[in-house]
Design a protein that fits this description.
The complex is a heterodimer of chains A (188) and B (308). Chain A is mainly alpha-helical and 188 residues long. Helices cover 76% and strands 0% of the residues of chain A. In chain A, helix 1 packs across helix 2 (19-41), helix 2 packs antiparallel against helix 3 and helix 8 packs across helix 9 (162-182). The N and C termini of chain A lie far apart (40 Å). Chain B has 308 residues and is an alpha+beta fold. Chain B is 56% helix and 11% strand. In chain B, the strands form three sheets. In chain B, strands 6-5-7-8 form a four-stranded mixed beta sheet. In chain B, helix 1 packs across helix 2, helix 5 (77-97) runs antiparallel to helix 7 (144-158) and helix 5 packs parallel to helix 8 (182-203). Chain B is elongated. The chains are: A mainly alpha (188), B alpha+beta (308). At the A-B interface, helix 2, helix 3, helix 5, helix 6 and helix 7 of A face helix 1, helix 3, helix 4, helix 5 and helix 9 of B.
Chain lengths: 188, 308
């Protein structure tokens, strides 16, 4: 495999101890790493911790990544996935109710390097499921998830009672979860 | 199933509850298997929402991650500074490679033409090389591009990891050269190379390019270090006070300017262009709280700190 020239150069700089190179890697790939971490951990705090672990590890042990063996973003994805699953497993032992979630996420761990491509297919199914939600529920979920609004803020922004905001979030998520279960994307 | 808890589970799964409500839900989940199963089901769906669209991490996470990384493995500053310089050299090299023969004689307001501009840049690179006892490449009449590149490579390859960054060397100046520590000279080489890359792009009517945020911050810090002496040399005095330079954008930050009572607010990259004398205080967009007159004078002096 021919190594990507940008990745080779960045890797050389990381090995040499150039911390601007780490900043550059972060600026290029933190959105991907954070999104993957968030998908697996399901919470923002967990995704932040995983994101930090992944980039700090790349800086501390740059030789763990070898540009001849693949693109930097693939390595970051694999590392993110593995760190996020570790975290989920650790939490699962603490929180019984999360054990099944960890099992689901760990179940497809063979995919590894093909992760990104696999997600593209799954992403399509997920997108369709989200689009299929009634607009009122979708709007409420998007506000809470992407804009980190509380249900009270969602209620204010959509000009609806708080009880309605709560039921839209719950109803929308339940429909989505049922849909993804029916599609085989998540296990019941 | 607790009725009140059940109805809030969707919001909880989305982290859309306050801390107290969250704690109440989590306490309940430990006791109620029905709600726990529902919570798991909902949160798994939330995990998949992230795939629908990528999600930016919170802005503050960047500094947290970089600080922690630097704490765990201290950077090799020589490599950071030469890495930034190498990045600008690579960009200018590519840009010069795209020039046609006629582009080299495009008029440049400061150095005659593009050829003169690159000769000027290579001359300042050569001065530093000479100070460091590195080879100096004679500047030919033609093949200026190759000669400049060779001189830059000599600087990039000539510094060891443990080079003494406090060693005094010549600093390029607008009117006459000064002197200062090598660390400052290396920031200046990257700064000047970027400035002239921007000049060449401007002459070709291409869009400007911004350096990475860390590099812009070093340029700003360099200017802030040089300002008090430059301001004193101009005989400008304000009331003693705690002035601030508050810059925005990816390279944003706050720098103390103890020259008087004022706060100047501007975009960080635009401020760096002011220091390079590619913006005048009149063409820079900025706001001032406090002593407006003094702030304007400080900006005017800041615009003389680059090396043209």
């Amino acid at each position: 495999m021919r190594a990507d020239e940008t990745d080779v150069r960045l890797h050389e700089r990381l090995v040499a101890g150039d911390d601007d190179a780490l900043a550059e890697v972060y600026d290029t790939w933190s959105t991907l790493v954070y999104s993957v971490a968030l998908r697996i951990t399901g919470d923002h705090g967990g995704a932040e911790d995983v994101t930090q672990e992944v980039f700090v590890r790349l800086w501390e042990r740059p030789h763990a990544y070898d540009p001849r063996r693949g693109a930097l973003h693939t390595w970051l994805c694999v590392m993110t996935r593995s760190r996020a699953l570790d975290r989920l497993r650790r939490e699962a032992t603490r929180n019984k109710y999360q054990a099944a979630a960890a099992a689901v996420a760990a179940g497809d761990s063979q995919a590894e390097v093909e992760e990104v491509a696999m997600w593209q297919a799954e992403a399509k199914a997920v997108r369709e499921a989200i689009q299929a939600l009634p607009e009122a529920q979708r709007d409420a979920i998007m506000l809470a998830f992407y804009h980190e609004r509380t249900y009270r803020e969602v209620a204010r922004e959509l000009n609806i009672p708080e009880g309605t905001a709560k039921s839209r979030l719950r109803g929308g998520l339940a429909t989505l979860a049922d849909h993804l279960t029916a599609e085989g994307i998540i296990e019941h | 199933m607790g009725v009140h808890i059940a109805e809030i589970l969707g919001a909880w799964a989305l982290d859309a509850v306050d801390g107290e409500e969250g704690a109440r839900v989590e306490a309940h989940l430990g006791e109620c298997s029905e709600c726990a199963a529902q919570a798991r089901h909902l949160r798994t769906a939330v995990g998949w929402l992230g795939i629908e669209r990528t999600m930016n991490p919170p802005t503050r996470l960047r500094e947290t991650v970089l600080d922690e990384a630097r704490r765990r493995r201290p950077p090799v500053l020589v490599r950071t500074l030469t890495g930034a310089y190498a990045g600008q050299v690579a960009l200018l090299d590519r840009q010069l490679g795209e020039l046609g023969p006629e582009d080299w004689s495009r008029p440049d307001p400061r150095h005659g033409d593009v050829a003169g501009l690159i000769r000027h840049l290579a001359g300042n690179d050569a001065t530093l090389a000479a100070d460091l006892d590195l080879p100096v490449i004679p500047m030919p009449g033609d093949r200026i591009h190759a000669a400049w590149r060779r001189q830059a490579d000599i600087l990039l390859e000539g510094l060891a990891d443990d080079a003494d960054l406090d060693r005094t060397v010549t600093l390029a100046g607008r009117d006459e050269p000064g002197s200062g520590p090598l660390r400052r000279a290396l920031v200046q080489r990257a700064f000047e190379t970027w400035t002239h890359l921007d000049d060449v792009r401007n002459l070709l009517h291409h869009t400007p390019v911004n350096p990475p945020p860390e590099q812009v911050r070093r340029i700003v810090s360099l200017a802030v270090t040089l300002l008090p002496t430059a301001v004193a040399a101009q005989g400008v005095t304000g009331r003693p006070g705690s002035g601030w330079l508050v810059l925005t954008g990816p390279a944003g930050g706050e720098w103390p300017l103890p020259l008087g009572e004022f706060t100047i607010r501007a975009d960080a990259v635009e401020f760096a262009r002011l220091v390079a004398n590619r913006r005048s205080p009149d063409s820079l967009e900025y706001k001032v709280d406090g002593d407006r007159h003094l702030a304007a004078q400080v900006l005017r002096i800041a615009s003389t700190l680059g090396c043209d």
